[in-house]
Amino acid sequence: MPGSASPELLEARIRGLQHALGQLLENARRLTQGEHQRAVRLHRQLQEQTAIARRESRALVDAKTAEALSEAEPKARLLADRLAPGLGSIPPNDARWRSRQLVGAGVPSYVRVGELDAGTPVVAPLLQTNGWKVTADRNENARRLLQSTALRLIAAAEPFRLRVDAFDPRLTGMMGLLGHLTTKYPQLVPRATHTAEQLHTVLSGLVDVSSLRASRQAQLGHERFEDLLKETGQVTDPYRLVILFDYPFGIDTLAQRDLLRLAATAGKRGICFLVHYDASTAAQLDVDSKQLLELLNPVVISNDRVEVAQLPPARLDPPFDATIAAGICDVIAERAEIAVLPTIDFERTLPDRSTWWQPVKDEISAVIGYDDRTPALVRLRSGNPALPHVLVGGAVGQGKSNLLLVLIHGLAARYAPADLEMYLLDFKHGVEFSALGPGPDRPHWLPQVRVLGVHSDRAFGLAVLRHLSDELARRSEIFKSHGNVADIAELAPGPERPARILVVLDEFQVLLEDDDELADEAAKLLERLVRLGRAYGVHVVLATQTIEGVKRLSTRRDSIFGQVPYRVALKTTPADSQAILRSGNTAAAELQFRGEAVLNANFGSPDDNQHVLVSFADKPVLDSLRRELWSRAGSEAHPPRVFHLAEPAHLTETAAAVKPEFGRPWTGLPIAVTEEPVSVEVRPEPGAGVLVLGDGPADALGVLTGLAVSTAAAAVDPPRFVFVDGTNSAPVAAEGKDALVQVLRELGCEVETVDKHDDIAPRLFALREAMRTGQAGGTYLLGFGFHGVPRMQVHAEGYFESPANALQDIVRDGPAQGLITYGWWNRMHVCTEQLGYGRANVATHLFLRHPQDGVRAVAGPLVRWASEPHRGLLWDGLHPEAQVVVPFAALRADEVDRTVELVRR
Fold first, then answer.
1. Was 369 annotated as part of a binding site?
2. Known binder of ligand: residue 394?
3. pLDDT confidence of 199, banded at 50, 70, 90?
4. 459 lies in the same domain as 579
5. Domain that holds residue 738
6. Distance, CA of 840 to CA of 279 (rounded, Å)
7. Entry's Pfam families (predicted)?
């Protein structure tokens, strides 16, 4: 191509350019390498400077942090001690755990979960929250935290202010650390439950507790349980801590339902949950574990570190030493033993004196205590609604007798004796009722009491039931005479309306516990009384420690208790709580203190439980009240019929109330409501006299005393008494015991002389007539221990007959001639040896402690006689059945004249 460079020239130019570019690149490389080296050196310098600055800064921060922590640690410890007082924040196994002073310092709302590395305790809120859900990388760590938390809370709380219920379905035994308390005070820490059925019972009870607290809080306008406690001062309602190990293992849909209901408002109701959540456990079908866990505050344990929201991570505490835990549990039990429940004075339950003894309208009622600040009222009425009778139960020493005294005296202050009569029987060996009647140093008594059985026996209880059954029949006739009224409330107040009757049978099951005819009749009469008594104004209070195992009640339980709507249960076992209240109602087992009670007016329905604190019936206060009521009653205050088990009758009291009839001397008192003594026919005729047979010198002397005193008091002219003592219990004449034989022979000669002189027959006839009318006293031989008179069968010089022959003449022929014998032998066969086979034709026998064979030989083969002290069986041959009597106590010498004078008046 013309004008163009040659190829060689172009190649030369390209090579020149490549060389120039190579030089340029080399220069750039050298320049870049130098800059890079400078940059590396600068970076290293900066790193060294930064490291130096960081070290200096960290040292400064660490110093500042250490300074801040050292200043904050005392404050943190003080705060922890304030939030979790006493043992709530002290490390496990610390020496202070052995201090008795720290036990029961107060209910802590916070509790220790661990400590910081510096030893500062970390406490977290618990009791006033719904509770914790605890998760852990190892289940034993979670269980350990729950265990230690329970021990801390129960140790820190005042006695009976906290209760711990645990569910341990895998039987880990973690609650065994509190085993001493479980044994001594199960109401504080019950034995852990393991089955779904047991858990249902616990949760069902808690639902009732939560519901009752919600009602109280709403009534008083309080949002939280703590505010309710401050307002009412109620210490009988504890915080409730519920521990669930290995949740959701063992939880069914029913338990889950109750858990959700409770946990939703637990913090406001004084209920708190400690739930160990085991994520490896699959929940049962229809149990969504997240629903419960979302209601609780999370606590996470990982690598022995505990994390709680808004708190620094803490080191998990080591487990408690078992010895220390046992020691603390013993101290807690000791504190619980002496814990005293605040009492309510009995006077606080009484109305104003101006309202005492107002006329009865539709019911009788009394306040027995308080439910918080609300009076707990027992209303006894026949209708609208019918609340006629009461069942009272409770374990030994829990205040049953006190409750009965409160009820009795509360009613006595409100209703006059003309409107209310009381029949009070105590079948146990107590003395609570004894002060309600007159005594040697107590001239006053409760004027409403008609019958008072102190240490009553079953026979007297049956007699009272028979009397009350007759009273129902009498009132039925009164109702018919007023136009067939159906209820005592329909009768207008006035003298024609019968008084209401309160029947209190303490330990009533004693009447029914033996398998005999008495128990069968008592059960029938009791059933009739509670069934018909309502309309006739008869109200029955049945009190007992337990009614389990009573055979007669097993067949009549519904027919008797079905008529008893009121149930009052003091602290007792779950089984007895259900027996007294109703099946499934274990509320009485949840009670904490003596004097607490569950009052229920709807046949024990759990929905109608009323938690009350019974007032305290102080003895001086009650005695002062009885004296005041007795004075107010004036002439209406008639002494009650008082009956004592295994005690003789009091002749002086009987003499003051009853006038004897000549020819009908007294052998004792009947086992009956009536105060009329049991008398026998003793006329100046063949067969007259009384043979007292059996062991018991004191009772025998009492029988002879009653016979002699009543005979002497009924006669116009003083009778002649000849006393023969064959027991050597009285001084004998100087001539010795032969004098006793001499007396018998002389009396025998008197009888024999009369028989041989027919010319004195008119005088004898006149004597008998005088004795029949009481104008002549006659002669009475009182033989005390004829079995001990010596030489009864010996024919002494100058006598053709033995003393025994003389005694036969006296007993057989003496009555027709004005000589009557009252004699005692310790055995019937001895009496028969001395008097002959027919026992001198005497018809009246009174047996003391005598073998049954001898009793049946006289009274018939069907007679049953259980020999008892101060009891006699009277057989006179005139009545179809033998009668049990209570012999009088023998009088002292200085009492005889006074008693005779009382009888004469």
1. no
2. yes
3. very high
4. yes
5. 657-881
6. 98
7. FtsK_SpoIIIE
